[in-house]
């Protein structure tokens, strides 16, 4: 799954050119961290967000690395607008018997 996520981002970036440098920096930072299985942009064409699949134990290190890499590429002020949301996968849509 993670490898497909990352390849999907590369395709969106290279083949469809709907990514932006800010998202590319965040995805590159994430995929170079230990414990990350994959990362990609979402909200294609709108500068949206990245989604990163990672091991729970890597959360703090990945957030730190993503923020630091973003600051290196841009600046501290720009990095203040970055927000991180920790999510846990759920079973998804299903039929519920009442």
Order of helices and strands: HHEEHH
The structural domain count equals 1
State the helix count.
4
Taking pLDDT < 50 over at least 5 consecutive residues as the criterion, the unreliable ranges are none
pLDDT averaged over residues: 93
Instruction: Count the E strands.
Output: 2
* Main sheet attributes: strand count, strand direction, barrel closure: 2 strands, antiparallel
Q: For the largest sheet, list the strands in their spatial order.
A: 1-2
Structural class estimated from helices and strands: alpha+beta
- Tell me the CATH architecture: 2-Layer Sandwich
CATH class: Alpha Beta
Helix content class:
40-55%
Report the C-alpha radius of gyration, rounded. Answer: 15 Å
Structural commentary:
Helix content is 44%, strand content 13%. It has one domain: Alpha-Beta Plaits (2-Layer Sandwich), CATH 3.30.70. Helix 2 packs antiparallel against helix 3. 21% of the residues are buried. The mean pLDDT is 93. It has 98 residues and is α+β, with helices and mostly antiparallel strands. It is globular and about 50 Å long. It is built from four helices and two strands, in the order H-H-E-E-H-H. Strands 1-2 form a two-stranded antiparallel ribbon.
């Amino acid at each position: 799954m993670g490898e497909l996520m990352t390849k999907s981002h590369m395709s969106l970036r290279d083949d469809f050119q709907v990514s932006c440098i800010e998202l590319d920096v965040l995805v590159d930072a994430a995929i170079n961290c230990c414990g990350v299985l994959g990362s990609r942009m979402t909200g294609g064409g709108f500068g949206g967000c990245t989604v990163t699949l990672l091991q729970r134990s890597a959360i703090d290190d990945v957030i730190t690395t993503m923020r630091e890499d973003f600051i290196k590429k841009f600046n501290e002020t720009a990095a203040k607008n970055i927000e991180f949301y920790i999510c846990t996968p759920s079973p998804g849509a299903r039929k519920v018997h009442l």
